[in-house]
Structures
1.
Amino acid sequence: MGLLMGVSVALPAQEKPENPFISPFDFPLLLSGNFGELRANHFHGGVDFKTQGVVGKPIRCIADGYISRVTVTPGGYGQAVYITHNNGMTSVHGHLHKFMDEVQEVVEAYQYEHETFAVDLTFEPDKFPLKQGEIFALAGNEGYSFGPHLHMEIRKTDTGEYIDPLQFYIDKVKDTTAPRATHVMLYPQPGKGVVNGSSRKKIFSLAGGRSPITAWGNISAGIKAFDYMDGTSNNYGVRSVKLYVDSVEVFSSSVDGFLPNENRMINAWTDYEEYATRNSWFMRSRILPGNTWRMLQADEEGGIVTINEERPYEFRYVLEDLYGNSRTYKLIVQGKKQKIASLNEGKHYLAWNEGHVVRKPGMELVIPKGMLYEDVDLNCKVIADSLDISFDYQLHDKAVPLHGGCSLKIGVRNFTVADKSKYYVARKYRGRKASAGGRFEDGYMHAQIRELGTYTVAVDTIAPRIVPLNKPQWKSGNIQFVIRDAETGIKDYKVYIDGEFALFKFSSKNARLSNMHSGRIKRGGKHTMEVIITDYCGNVAKEEYQF
Ligand SMILES: [Zn+2]
């Protein structure tokens, strides 16, 4: 062996693995969103590359492969291209302005043939093969996008796992700025802990001048923080959070990847109630028992800290980004004996690791095993008004996420409308009603719900509203409408000009319906246009216009 005693021999420099991906753009990369940012019911599955404030930037294929899928949707990615690469990865590119000509032709032919704007097409490898560097689309601002950018994901082709694309572009994106936190939340364990004399969770600012914190029993913590990068004013998700108590690591998270089925676990990791009621994100330093997301690590207590000595406990948070920029925060929690309110388990105590059926007069909720992330002491109430279409059912007094759809059926008591297709299940919150859809069968409305809350049955008999815009410009082909539906939402729309299907784009972010191919309208003469909009309860708005 070539090693000399007592002398440390440097190993040959590790060969840097060759980067499998090139930049999608020929200009410097800046991010407006990073991987794993916290969003409603999902992690941000990719990075958002800025496109210098404009639409129409050509996008280069980042590695050899082929276009395997193309989608067009009123919301979401708007127009997207999926490229299956030869290296086991698939890249997804969203909010596109335009596809390359050959793809654009296939998409449009499908749209006219099937009289639809929405498209979801898959292709064999030999249909649209691509070489690294080839331009396959122009970046845009379509779908649920509020400024020109390219949303780009990299997924493992076999498992569908989302991974962080930034790891392939580290040398092309500058970042010397560490994450920053603003608040810590402390959570007493129900019936087992107390913070500042209360069994409720309590928020603490990390800015100076805070009053002392006392606690006793079992508590856990959470932190509100964002990451920042050089040369932008955006904020980003924090890749890594570690919590130490008295120098012992009790919890760490690292947003490196997630499988499609782990995406909703964001609701178990973050403080869902804070998000749902205050639109505020706290990353909890605790693994709820039903949370199986692999990127969380904790001691055997799952991140729960026991305060059982009258002394200061040092909570130390270390936040770090992909570049290793890190920042540390300390919080002293003084152990102080305090009375811990005991927990009175209610009638509907739902254990996280079991399935449950909750029944009340005229209502049944089925929660299969695997849908709860933690035990719920369900506060269930029937709010009965015998004149209403149905009773209101309070299925808990706090926002609780469910991992998947759970069947809810509610009896219809007063048929205010004969047509059963007009009924829907509605969730009531903050004085509003949100449709959970559903169908009528055997006296009940049946729906799938993904969150506990207050539910009832409502009726939608009101057709969508069509508001024409800038009529003087219609002759030049620039035809636009705003279409809205007050209750169940727009399910479908069709526009015919002189009896022929006309392709209109619907953009759900601004409710705008706009003509896509003005060139197809014959110049001169009078035209007749028919607009038909249908909502989810089958109410139809039909308008005819001359121009
Ligand atoms: Zn994005």
Note: The radius of gyration is 27 Å.
2.
Amino acid sequence: MFDALSRWSRRRTLSRAAIPDALWREAVAQLPFLALYGDDDLARLREKVVLFLDAKAIVGARGHMVTPLQRVIVAIQACVLVLELDLAFYDGFENVIVYPGEFVPEWEWEDEAGVVHRNEAPLAGEAMPGGPVVLSWPDVEAGADWESSGMNLVIHEFAHKIDMRDGEANGCPPLPAGMSPEIWQRALNAAYDDFCARVDAGEHTAIDPYAAESPAEFFAVLSEVFFAEPLLLRREYPRVYGQWVAFYRQDPAARAAGLARE
Ligand SMILES: [Zn+2]
């Protein structure tokens, strides 16, 4: 009964909140990395985006007005991560807040000595456990084109959200049955140590050196690479790539390799 009811409510949402074709096409055109996705994938992505937009509010702040196109652009990138997962991965928060530029977060934290700190450096994006995802629109725009920017802010912040499903972000999201946390951790640690050593040695890395910041940032940055330039991640860190394939239930490098052969 419950299943029938949820299927019915899903169908109702899909028709009630459908995205007009022209708007969908315009949004897809602004995200060149979606070239990896076939028509079937894109159709399923579109459904997920409709359900996502029905569940979350994407709201402007500090004078930023979110246009319908911006809503869809943000939602598509958020949904790429959960294309093969349940949208419930994003339960526990309701809002995505979009600022007109970088912002200084208002939260404070206490260190082990009891000293209270305040972050003074402006951020392009932020995700907090149980809180909204916050994005700077110019940085969303810049990150939409991976080829020119080598970063994707929306995928980055939503990867943090997935990582935070079991508390603080630490590079290891709760894994499904059948995946071993030990194997995940071993693959992640080996790659992270290697990457940090390369960055420390001053090597120019194809992956954003910001990934060396912490295991949580490593997971978020490598998730960007996984979806936007999967062949790079598979080449650099194949064991991590394999774990990401099992976790996200997608193999974007196989899609990319298929396209390269065509
Ligand atoms: Zn981050």
Note: The CA atoms of residues 45 and 83 lie 6 Å apart.
